[in-house]
Write a structure and sequence with these properties.
Length: 245
């Protein structure tokens, strides 16, 4: 996710200096990192299947490509080159980027020739876009404006990523089944989002609490739907972030 956390104080996010405030702030950020890890490892069963069968079958690499670009943008935002005092944004997205890159590389390794070329090209495009963002933000903007520029890109990227939980919510409502919405993933999305929402509020950080506030609402909706439709549903089968073409 739900990645996953961002900031905007006038000149960068800072703590108040109160020990209690600092403990709460870092506690929320660390909790968000932990819950995000659950989401990052959720596609592992799918990739074990791909490796075992030696084929990507009908699975799509697009969720991992999108997630990689999102993690890279948010990682850049969390570094001191762009923002001060939001290191936990950088840590969670650096871990996320490694996972998404590993998933994409595995997909390329087991895809057919046509898909391999397509996904490899998209991967090159992702790093090209990220390099362009880094270059433009360093060359064209001062530090404060750079934070706004990258922050708004991060929010736009995160909002785009909400298409995944929204599609799952739509599927659950249409099928009246939670088969494709595992409870532990919905719970992890909610806990990650609310943790980073608290982290952003404590830092007075618009680019953190707005997208994660939306993520919290989506997480609540998923949990409510799970509670309502779980009776009569078959066993959960697919991870939240995996889509099929």
């Amino acid at each position: 996710m739900n990645s996953l956390g961002l900031s905007v104080a006038a000149a960068g996010a800072t703590t108040t200096g109160s020990p209690f405030h600092d403990v709460c702030c870092y506690g929320a950020g660390i909790a968000g990192n932990i819950f995000a890890l659950v989401l990052f490892v959720s596609p592992l069963p799918t990739f074990k299947r791909i490796v075992r069968n030696g084929s990507t079958e009908q699975f799509s690499a697009m969720p991992y490509i999108y997630s990689l670009l999102n993690c890279l943008i948010c990682l850049w935002y969390g570094l001191p080159f762009v923002s001060y005092g939001v290191v936990l944004v950088a840590t969670v997205n650096s871990i996320g980027a490694v996972f998404q890159l590993a998933y994409t590389a595995t997909f390329v390794a087991f895809a057919d020739a046509k898909q391999r070329v397509k996904v490899s090209s998209l991967l090159v495009m992702v790093f090209g876009v990220f390099a362009l963002i880094v270059y433009a933000s360093l060359v064209l903007f001062d530090h404060q404006t750079r934070q706004l520029f990258v922050g708004y890109l991060s929010v736009a990227s995160l909002i785009f990523m909400f298409a995944s939980p929204l599609s799952i919510i739509n599927l659950v409502i249409r099928t009246r089944s939670v088969e494709y919405m595992p409870f532990y993933l919905s719970l992890s999305m909610f806990l990650m989002s609310i943790s980073f929402f608290a982290y952003g509020v404590l830092l007075h950080d618009f680019f953190i609490y707005i997208p994660n506030g939306i993520g919290t609402v989506l997480g609540i909706i998923q949990l409510v739907l799970y509670s309502y439709f779980r009776k009569g549903s078959t066993e959960d089968r697919l991870p939240l972030l995996v889509t099929q073409t």
